[in-house]
Amino acid sequence: MDELEPITPDEAVQLYLNHRQREVSEATLRSHKSRLSHFIRWCNDEKDIKNLNDLTGRTLHEYRLWRRNFNGGIKPVTEKTQMDTLRVFIRFLETIDAVSPDLSDKVLSPDLESKENVRDVMLDESHADAVLGHLSKFEYASRPHIVLTLQWHTMMRRGAVRAPDLRDYHADDQCLEIRHRPETGTPIKNQEDGERMIALSSQICTLLDDWIDGPRPDVTDEHGRNPLITTTHGRVHVTTVTSIVYSWSRPCRIGALCPLNRDVDECEAACYEGASKCPESVSSHAVRRGSITNHLASDIPVEVVSARANVGRDVLEKHYDRRSEKSKMEQRRKFLRNL
């Protein structure tokens, strides 16, 4: 312990975040900061720990129990992500002589059943067709039309949707380049490994052309770049992409009847700001999950979907492929009929 250098919880977390800044995406960094904020609060408010040199396996276990039961309790999958991040953080502290060697080995994390770490929420094909059909008829080539079309047809993450510039769209070759440019505000998941060229259909190219020639605000972002998807203030923000998906995936937004029989005039979710509260709306990630599932259900090879969506096959099959076992069997049957 005499060889350790004193450090406060706040200082330690900031050092860790600075260390990881060039290694992970901005979104991952924000997630780690959010998870470790609970640890900081516990150290400062619950245990009055001013120096992380004092951490032991027992105190880390006490934190795990506190976090598990905090505010009514958290799900096992949330507990696992919290503790896994804490282990990485403690491992970093070992390298800077802030905690006892091998303390990270004492950070316990729950083992999950295979299905406990999988979410099933997704935008299904019929819902997607209804939303895109409405936008095509009443909001053609609008920002929501562009965002939702790209997400559904290309399986891109929301960070990739906002990343391209005008120069990255190649109308003649009917494709869109996705590039990792963190120094000018558009990092993408998997960084350079996430860079790729995405083929577009002639219909999507026509839609993009009409957006560029029509309602697209002709502005630059704070880095002097010319974003493909803009607002009057510059490049579309990732939270705007999220809000668009929540807003337009509500049944009432496209004129459909509310499955919950709510009065639109009284429903708190029947406005742009409250759209995420609608039980029928879905997140941007659910659009990606639904799109991947739909591509696979359309007999597109897993390898093609994996490359286009920029997701490993193992992750794809565990977290994105929501086809039933029976539907998989029927698809295989098509290829086996003549054997």
Automatic annotation (TrEMBL):
<feature type="domain" description="Core-binding (CB)">
    <location>
        <begin position="7"/>
        <end position="94"/>
    </location>
</feature>
<dbReference type="Pfam" id="PF02899">
    <property type="entry name" value="Phage_int_SAM_1"/>
</dbReference>
<dbReference type="GO" id="GO:0003677">
    <property type="term" value="F:DNA binding"/>
</dbReference>
<dbReference type="InterPro" id="IPR044068">
    <property type="entry name" value="CB"/>
</dbReference>
<keyword id="KW-0229">DNA integration</keyword>
<dbReference type="InterPro" id="IPR004107">
    <property type="entry name" value="Integrase_SAM-like_N"/>
</dbReference>
<keyword id="KW-0238">DNA-binding</keyword>
<dbReference type="GO" id="GO:0006310">
    <property type="term" value="P:DNA recombination"/>
</dbReference>
<dbReference type="InterPro" id="IPR050090">
    <property type="entry name" value="Tyrosine_recombinase_XerCD"/>
</dbReference>
<dbReference type="InterPro" id="IPR010998">
    <property type="entry name" value="Integrase_recombinase_N"/>
</dbReference>
<dbReference type="InterPro" id="IPR011010">
    <property type="entry name" value="DNA_brk_join_enz"/>
</dbReference>
<dbReference type="GO" id="GO:0015074">
    <property type="term" value="P:DNA integration"/>
</dbReference>
<protein>
    <submittedName>
        <fullName>Site-specific recombinase XerD</fullName>
    </submittedName>
</protein>
<keyword id="KW-0233">DNA recombination</keyword>
<dbReference type="InterPro" id="IPR013762">
    <property type="entry name" value="Integrase-like_cat_sf"/>
</dbReference>
